[in-house]
Q: What sequence folds into this?
């Protein structure tokens, strides 16, 4: 299935959504970002490969790129429109990524919490067997998101056993949004993207050797399993890493995804 939209189709979608926030611009044209470098800007692109997408984020200073995919671009841009009111709301546990009507749940966890227990709770929430092949990418993503938070928590020496972290789930039709929250606010978005870049350039089978303890492999898995990736950090206060991904679908659905990435940083 092709998700590609030409420039005229993309401009029609932008016009229909009536973006009029002067602090956050959305365009299918790269030139607008170059002219408005001080504003928050979303590029509505088409046909970017994973490597091109990460290159744009790392080396062309884009912080938000949307592509039409399994989750339609219209839904993605409606979320961007809500965020354009205030980026701070992204760090609220109550802020949902999926449209109204999605089923939600919030799980608390700490450094010592078993990731397998959390995965089992997620499967129970979405009524899917952990043994199902259709659950493999979902469980892999949850494993990596939890691990990222637990490692960060250990490095910042928070009190043992204290429930400082949350995993929020939103489920709607064949989409699931997963958000991992912590109170450290230490995420380095560029470093996270660099690990994805390394994973893409080496291939997942080789990226396990990248850096200490296989760093890069987890970030690459998170990225390649998602439709949209959100890297949010309110420095020294809050981190939220979120993915929106298909679930309960065949592996082939993941092959044609046009991914979107957003960096939401507040200093």
A:
């Amino acid at each position: 299935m092709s998700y590609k939209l030409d420039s005229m189709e993309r401009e029609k979608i932008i016009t229909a959504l009536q973006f009029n926030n002067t602090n956050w611009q959305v365009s299918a044209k790269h030139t607008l970002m170059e002219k408005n470098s001080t504003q928050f800007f979303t590029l509505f692109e088409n046909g970017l490969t994973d490597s091109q997408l990460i290159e744009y984020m790392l080396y062309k200073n884009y912080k938000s790129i949307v592509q039409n995919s399994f989750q339609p671009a219209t839904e993605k841009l409606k979320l961007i429109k809500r965020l354009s009111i205030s980026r701070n709301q992204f760090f609220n546990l109550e802020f949902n990524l999926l449209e109204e009507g999605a089923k939600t749940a919030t799980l608390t966890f700490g450094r010592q919490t078993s990731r397998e227990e959390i995965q089992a709770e997620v499967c129970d929430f979405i009524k899917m067997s952990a043994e199902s092949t259709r659950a493999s990418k979902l469980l892999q993503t949850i494993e990596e998101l939890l691990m990222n938070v637990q490692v960060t928590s250990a490095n910042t020496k928070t009190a043992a056993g204290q429930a400082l972290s949350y995993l929020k789930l939103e489920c709607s039709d064949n989409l699931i949004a997963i958000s991992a929250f912590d109170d450290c606010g230490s995420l380095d978005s560029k470093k996270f993207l660099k690990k994805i870049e390394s994973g893409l350039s080496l291939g997942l089978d080789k990226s396990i050797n990248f850096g200490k303890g296989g760093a890069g492999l987890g970030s690459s898995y998170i990225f390649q399993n998602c439709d949209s990736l959100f890297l949010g950090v309110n420095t020294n206060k809050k981190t939220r890493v979120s993915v929106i991904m298909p679930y309960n679908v065949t592996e082939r659905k993941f092959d044609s995804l046009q991914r979107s990435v957003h960096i939401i940083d507040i200093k």
